[in-house]
Amino acid sequence: MSGTEFKDRVRREVPIETYVTRFVPLKKAGKSFTGLCPFHKEKSPSFHVNPQGGYYHCFGCKASGDLFKFVMDYHRVDFVRSMEILSEFSGIPLHIGKSPQDTEKAKRKDEAYRLNQKVTEYFKKCLRDSIGQNARNYLDKRGLSPEEVELFDIGFAPEGFQNLKTDLLHSAYEEDLAIELGILKKNDKGNVYDFYRNRVMFPIKDASGRIVGYSGRTLATGPDSTEAKYINSPNSLIYDKGRQIYNLFLSQEEIRNQRKVFIVEGVMDAIGLYTRGIKNVIAPLGTSFTENQAKILKNLADSVTLVMDGDGAGTKGALRASEILLKEGCATSVVSMQEGEDPFDFSRKVNRSELRTYLDDSLSAWQFLIEDATLGKNQGSTPEEKKAAIDSLFVFVKKWEKQTDQQLFIGEAAKKLGLSVSALWKDFTSNTEQFAVPISDNKNKVIRKVVVNRPITKGAIECERTILAKLVSHPDLFRYADEVDGLEFLEDSSVIVWEWLYTQFHMGETIVPAEFLSTESIPEEIREMYAPFLMQEEMGGLEDQFEVFEGLLQYQKRYYHQSELDRYLLDKTASKDEFDRISWIKFHKDKIEQINASQRNSVKIAR
């Protein structure tokens, strides 16, 4: 039985009200059932279950979906796990058609999750035992209670190189998997040893609560210590540090409720704020904030507040994260700690009300970036200082692709420096590769960026929309997620749809046509454009879809390179400073020929 067949059978044979009523007391109300919503606090019932349609809806918090969505949200599990739960509940067998390679990979992932859980319990036991006394002293000194330590599953990796192999991992398979996950290491001589030693261990959980990795804080301190303060798990089959977010499992419900999220630098900062009542706080892991993390948060929250350490590294991190978030269209503000202070320490010396007041007093990310770009200069600065500020500003503004963003920065910086907006804009545009013309909007003359004509053929549009529509209809095609994420989309709407799909997949949310066509995260006009592509009749099985999808990806890449050639031919000034005429044309022609050659050697894909 395929995954689709299983879902259809469950929807036919399992009344939604029989499952929901196990957790939510329901009363008959006409043709529907009502009860108190399990997803938000309420005194009067606004949660409705429609047995005929097989869906639920809360008129209070707007939570809605089918039986699978209820299982995912109520139990905080991903879509695959929701099918397993409903299979266990209903007795309907679950056999998802997968290739042997996919089945083996899924099995190894499950074993990786189980091994991480096993190792976590071992670290927690070490923390409770006498061997963990120094670690307990450290946590107590930092102000964490035993209850808070348990909430975050904090543990301790003792000193020594063979603890895990001696006490816990007794098979060659587990040892090999532990090496793959970065729990054990193998040196050049082939000797295997514990990677984490004498460290307080903070498990990293995904949105479903599964442990995917660790962040370990050394207890070796002092001027003679050569240990890195924190070391994090390497990327593995279940952990991607550029996409995972610390504390998302605990904070996601509060983020959704408030539509706001606080971002701090480290795991202790996130723990500090969370245990002081700031339940919508997260932290990036082992790297600076990434575009992938921004995409995930964008679909959970409407506004983001960066809470950074009061040092140079904190400022640098806030500047980078601000740029990423603003480019993603997130309303962003910044709170900076006093020099030498971090959010965790601050959360321990003030009460909850004072902490909330401090965090609410934030600076717009636009102003934060302008302050840095203009070197902190203002109307009272000397001409020499203003000139340096202008040079710095121009370097910064050139990084922004949208002309509206450029104009906002130039306009605000002009006011800050006491200069003419039009003069500053004129100097900027005369020294950049922008091509701008005045266009009348019948009210005022405004400067708008005119993107040099890029012809987008009907075939290119249909190709992109078909790619994304297939991802909606066939979640198994997300095996190609990284390749799709690397495409140069030709339609703005494609970017919007892909961002939604990417977030849904990462969060384990349902991806089905009905959900796609009803979500408010995507503008209605875009959903309407995609409806015909979702209704297209498809031939063949899942393996056929893989083959078709691979062909579509190649077609899209060819359309992109062809559009670059066409764009150049229509505007001879395009990219003249990036490539000379010969190299520009040769580069894209070579790319097209490579794709054509690849397709000639493969099965022909019907457009």
Structure, explained:
The chain is 51% helix and 12% strand. α20 (458-473) runs antiparallel to α25 (542-570). The longest helix is centred in the first third of the chain and has 29 residues, at 100-128. The chain has 5 domains: 3-90, Zinc finger, CHC2-typedomain (DNA Primase, Chain A); 100-232, DNA primase, catalytic core, N-terminal domain (DNA primase DNAg catalytic core, N-terminal domain), CATH 3.90.980.10; 248-362, Dna Topoisomerase Vi A Subunit, Chain: A, domain 2; 374-449; 458-600. The protein has a 5-stranded antiparallel beta sheet with strand order 1-2-3-4-5. It is α+β, with helices and mostly antiparallel strands and 607 residues long.
> What is Rg?
27 Å
- Spatial arrangement of strands, main beta sheet: 1-2-3-4-5
Give the total of domains: 5
Helix content: 40-55%
* Low-confidence regions: 433-453, 573-579, 603-607
The percent range for strand residues is: 5-15%
Structural class, by secondary structure, is alpha+beta
C-alpha geometry: globular
Main sheet record: 5 strands, antiparallel
Average residue-wise pLDDT: 83
Kindly state the number of beta strands: 18
Distance, first to last CA: 29 Å
Please give the count of helices. 26
Question: How are the SSEs placed, and which strands pair?
Answer:
Layout: H1 3-13, H2 16-20, E1 27-29, E2 32-35, E3 47-50, E4 55-58, E5 64-66, H3 67-75, H4 79-90, H5 100-128, H6 133-142, H7 146-151, E6 155-157, H8 163-167, H9 172-181, E7 184-186, E8 192-194, E9 199-205, E10 211-218, E11 230-232, H10 248-258, E12 260-263, H11 267-274, E13 281-282, H12 291-298, E14 303-308, H13 312-327, E15 331-336, H14 343-349, H15 352-360, E16 363-364, H16 365-373, H17 383-397, H18 403-417, H19 421-430, E17 436-440, E18 445-449, H20 458-473, H21 481-485, H22 492-506, H23 513-518, H24 524-534, H25 542-570, H26 581-600
Parallel strand pairs: 12-13, 12-14, 14-15
Antiparallel strand pairs: 1-2, 2-3, 3-4, 4-5, 6-9, 7-8, 9-10, 10-11, 15-16, 17-18
Helix pairs in contact: 1-4, 3-4, 5-9, 11-14, 13-16, 18-19, 20-22, 20-25, 25-26
